[in-house]
Structure formats: C-alpha cells, structure tokens
C-alpha cells in the first residue's frame, strides 16, 4: 500500500523536508526579483511548520449548505447565467478589478460535470476580455488555488499597464499593498465588466449606479 496515497500520513516529500528549521535564504533568491514586493537586510524564511494531517476541511467541503458561494445571493454577483457567476471579492479592491468566476453548482474542478467543463474555456476567455476592456489593463492574471473554499473559483486579477513590478506571481501580494481603489471607480469597473459579459448572454447584476 502506498503511504503517499493516504491523507493521514506525511508523504515522502514532506518527510524529507527539514520541518521545524528555518530554510536559508539563497544567495540569488526570489528577493532579488524585480517583482518581489519587499526589501531589507533582515529578510528571513519562516521556519517550516510540521504538516497538519488530515487537513482541516475547507469552506463548503461537506456540501453546499455551509458553502459561502452557494449561500451568496445572486443579486450580489456582478453577472450570472444559468450555470456560472462572476462575483466581486470583498468590499474593496487594490487593483482595477479582482473578480471570481465560479460555477453556480457546488463543484470543485475535479468533479465539475462535463458540460460545465466544456463551457469553461470560452467563458474564461469572455471573462478575461471583459476585464481587459477596462481602462489601462495590460494583463488579466487567472488563478485557481482552491485552498480556502471547496467551491471551484477562478481569480481574475487585472494588472495595470506599465507597472512592470506587478508582473507575474507576486501580483496577488502587491494587491494587498497598494492603496484601495476609490469605491465609485470600483463599482464603475464592475458595471463595465458585467455589461461586457451580459452583451454575450446572461444577466448583469452590477448595472445599478
Ligand atoms: Zn458551493
């Protein structure tokens, strides 16, 4: 029996790691990247914590009854059609737009029905185009992590044109550091995204001023 297949025990990968120790900062490290948001002579890697197994349940792990997405009224979405919805994240944004594309049904990616999976490619493209339609957006970074919620959700983060430091994987960290977008501008961008999506189908819920 392969121990690595059981979620109760640490895998060979995890057992090999120097748990409890502080990993050294490499001579040429991520801290030297142009996109790394922090600087200082005392940057250290945190000690590696021991594994937590089995892992605690994610939000919605045990079904739609306790799922944040399933319990969120459609009226709070920016846009939705019969099977998908696009939602804002939180109540403020530190990028021109940060939105979540997610199925209306309670699925994670591995359990997504074939019909929904087939819709995903064209829909991601539509959502990216809608966000790219905002003023001054160079790129839309599409991310799927899924460690917080069991309900599939794709993050779309708008990366402002010209801000070369915000390229790539640290955009999500920069999003925590930049000043918040004025609320009127945030809502305006939401309306533009919703209208662009609704122009090709579905309903815009964010069109009220
Ligand atoms: Zn759900």
Describe this structure in words.
- The chain is built from 4 helices and 6 strands.
- Residues 1-6 have low confidence and may be disordered.
- The chain has 209 residues and is α+β, with helices and mostly antiparallel strands.
- Helices cover 22% and strands 14% of the residues.
- The protein has 2 domains: 1-56, no CATH class; 73-204, 2-Layer Sandwich (HIT family, subunit A), CATH 3.30.428.
- The termini are far apart.
- It binds zinc ion.
- Zinc ion is lined by residues 60, 64, 67, 69-70, 106, 151.
- Residues 60, 64, 67, 69-70, 106, 151 line the site of zinc ion.
Key structural traits:
209 residues; alpha+beta; 2 domains; 6-stranded antiparallel sheet; 4 helices; globular; binds zinc ion
From the coordinates shown, what is the CATH architecture of the largest domain?
2-Layer Sandwich
Query: How many separate helices?
Result: 4
Major pleated sheet: 6 strands, antiparallel
Query: What small molecules does the structure contain?
Result: zinc ion
Low-pLDDT runs of 5+ residues are 1-6
Tally of extended strands?
6
Return the average pLDDT rounded to an integer: 93
- What does the overall shape look like? globular
- Top-tier CATH class of the largest domain: Alpha Beta
What portion of the residues fall into strands of 2 or more residues?
5-15%
Number of domains: 2
**Alpha-carbon distance between the two ends:** 60 Å
By CATH, the superfamily of the largest domain comes out as HIT-like
